[in-house]
Amino acid sequence: MKEMTFLKTISILLFIGWQLPSQTLCQTNLSRQSVTDHLVQDLSCENLTVDSIFQAISVDRAFNPSQHIPLRNWSFQSGPYRLANCWSLSRSQRLIFYLGQFPDAQLDELTVLNMLRGSEPYSYSDGPKEWYKIPYTTFPWNSETFEKLLKKQHQDIGQGTILDRHFKAEVEHYQNYRFHDLIRNFKFILDGRERSPDENKSTIQYLQANLKKNRLTLVLIRASRWVQHVVLAKKISQNNNNEIQIEVYDSNQPDRKSIFTYNQSEKHFYAPQLIQGLQGVTDIQSPVGLFIVDEKETTFIGKTLLKHYQAACGEHHD
Fold first, then answer.
1. Which 3 state secondary structure label does DSSP give 119?
2. The pTM is what?
3. Among the residues of the chain, which ranges form H helices?
């Protein structure tokens, strides 16, 4: 009698499973469980890892230009000089591509603003400070979210200090912080423009490995010792001219497809489309220097995605 009840229960469960709508995002059966959403396609819940999540990303959908920040790069005053926001906007775009793909997520505006800022502001007795160990979260990226983030909100960060928080202010804060990180930035001005063939070969190999695993990569392009530009590498492909082509998000032209190339024979990078129009650049056809920057943050992004998909797969972790 107990055996018959057990078999009947299994039959009912199987029947219910077969009747689930075909568009269900979390698909389950006896042999396989997977997740498909705005970021990933058929992500297996078995042996879930950060690498498996990145590998399951649907690149054409998730990294589509329609997801680009709808603002062109702008400049702001930083002490005696003006800075543009290419580094910070490229970093922000990476956050959006990975963590902004969740329309059902609750928008925590201050947490997202802290991510864009790269820190959490607070005030102590000796003045305003920054806390750099910030939480990362998934969020919905759409026109409504963008409008909310653009609006100024006043935050009391302690000691009676009121800070205006909004999208552009946080982008400018990170750009200012990263520009003045002199220890990490010193290597970018050691030489004039292009790097050695051996350095370039090592860089393209690293970039190929990253993009093959769908790991978006921030790239600094050196047009001269004092003129540099940062873009976000998204896709890589081989063309018919012995060149490797890298598609990027470029904050100077966010509404168009932008690329730079690597010549495999010469072992040099070229980026005429990206450096054309930069102040002080007259020669756009010669090789440029290329550096990979801000790789560490991908670790925090990966951990955030792993936590999200563990929950989506119904896994229980302490």
1. coil
2. 0.87
3. 2-18, 50-55, 59-62, 86-99, 109-117, 143-150, 167-179, 182-185, 197-212, 272-275, 297-312
